[in-house]
Amino acid sequence: MVTSLRSEGEFIEFPLVYRLTQINRNRIYRASSGDTDSGAARAYVGEFPDIRVRPKFRFSRSENIFAIGSHIARNFEFACHKRKTNALSLQCKVPGSLYERSSETPGNAALNVQTAHAVLDLMRLPERRDWSRAGAIELEDGSWADLMMSGLRHLTQDEMETARGELIAVYQLLDRADIVFISLEGTESWFDGRDRIFVNKSPAIEVASLRSPERYSFVNIDPAEAMECIEEIIGRLQQRTKGRARIVLSVSPVPVHGTYTADDVILADRYAKATLASAAQAVAARHDHVDYYPVLEICACGSHTAVWAQDGVTMQRSYLNMVLEKMMSDLLLD
């Protein structure tokens, strides 16, 4: 029962709830003739859904932004940079020659992170003595596969040190952040038991990992674990910024590329998004300096052909631009 989970003092009194029902014009989903405020009228009608966001806080162009996460985080920081806002995470400049697709990849795409636990361990990485190797696999030819960074080819030892140096340098800039934007993507997480770190990619992509299968273990985190991890991320950010940073949580709409569970990948993806969205919103509700931005929901309401390319995982640039414009309109002060 709910009462076994909450004390009576944590409930909201009826008069306040009733007052909210009187002033919230956006509380009814069912459409009626001629209305424009119902959820049904705003969600699936027209080119782009009208989801009315009331942010807890907004940021100015003079503030420092740090973006953590996957595809949406990278695009958010570029949108901030385009509007003359200092995006600290753009200072990561991994040489294009170190990427598998060097001609297509921006220098900081290596920062893409898939899971909350990997986010937390990447934030901790600069504190480790083994920061230059933790979570990486040394291959038979002496090259390295880095499971903490995204999109990189196999690297020589010198190249590995270059890439990790950029990673560490940019995460040290978290101390200067005023706004931290975090985009979470998946729940299926891999733990490197030898290095005691959650890696950012599945070890299954590297044949070398099969030589030491006992090194890795898998967990598909549940909502309680997601909340616990997000709370720890927020606590660490508050320590790093001396309580200054405000944090915007979101969930990437990009589907998981595959699943390591026995479930249909469609169900695995829905589980991941529902778990992360509910955890992020619940955590945001606990803190005045933490908010949730509905990127996932904006994309879920768009028509499939408007949002996604034919492969089903690449977002249409036109729709992504509309999402970013809405985010800037809702969150940027000037």
Q: How would you describe this protein?
A:
This protein is globular. The model has no long low-confidence stretch (mean pLDDT 91). With 334 residues, it is of the alpha/beta class. It is 35% helix and 13% strand. Helix 3 (71-82) packs across helix 10 and helix 4 (116-124) packs parallel to helix 6 (223-240). Helix 3 links the parallel strand 1 and strand 2 (86-87). A 5-stranded parallel beta sheet has the order 2-1-5-9-10, sandwiched between helices. Strands 7-6-8 form a 3-stranded antiparallel beta sheet. It has a two-stranded antiparallel sheet with strand order 3-4. The longest helix is centred in the C-terminal third of the chain and has 22 residues, at 265-286. The relative contact order is 0.14. It has 2 domains: 12-45, no CATH class; 59-331, SGNH hydrolase (Rossmann fold). The N and C termini lie far apart (46 Å).
Give a quick rundown of the structure.
The chain has helices at 14-23, 39-43, 71-82, 116-124, 157-172, 223-240, 265-286, 295-301, 304-307, 317-331, and strands spanning 64-69, 86-87, 136-138, 144-146, 179-184, 188-192, 197-199, 216-220, 246-251, 290-292. With 334 residues, the protein is an alpha/beta fold.
